[in-house]
Amino acid sequence: MSRICELTGKGRQVGNNVSHANNKTKRVFLPNLQNVTLMSEKLDRSFKFRVSTNGLRSVEHVGGLDNWLIKTKNEKLSDRAVKVKRELKKLDAKADQAA
Predict the structure, then answer these.
(1) What one-character-per-residue DSSP string does 54-77 give?
(2) Contacting residues for 63 by C-beta, under 8 A, at least 6 apart
(3) What is the DSSP secondary structure assignment for residue 6, as one 8-state letter?
(4) How many other C-beta atoms are found inside a 10 Å radius of the C-beta of residue 25?
(5) What is the rounded distance in angstroms from the CA atom of residue 90 to the CA atom of residue 94?
(6) 13-18 and 45-52: which strand pairing?
(7) 3-class DSSP state for residue 80?
(8) What pTM did the predictor assign?
(9) Per-residue confidence in pLDDT tens, the chain, 99 aa
(10) Which of 1, 16, 17, 68 satisfies CB 3.0 to 4.6 Å to 59 for a cystine?
(11) Are 7 and 49 spatial neighbours (Cβ–Cβ below 8 Å)?
């Protein structure tokens, strides 16, 4: 399983370990990923995602999963998140037709 946040696209970064003698060796910085269940208010369903803690804070700051998905570009989102975003857009389209 790749270590990539499903909502922000944040992945691993590469850097160096630097010793006291200034020797440099390659190392990897991994994002802090958590398995979380996020609730969609418009769809009235919950979805399981693998999200970085930074991404989770961002989702809460924007106002929830629905607002985050609508505002985020598809390139950053995982395939599962894009499917949820499509469901949200279909629901909005139906609501616009009914009104």
Answers:
(1) HHHHHHHHHTSHHHHHHHS-TTTS
(2) none
(3) T
(4) 8
(5) 6
(6) unpaired
(7) helix
(8) 0.86
(9) 689 999 999 999 999 999 999 999 999 999 999 999 999 999 999 999 999 999 999 999 999 999 999 999 999 999 999 999 999 999 989 888 876
(10) 68
(11) yes
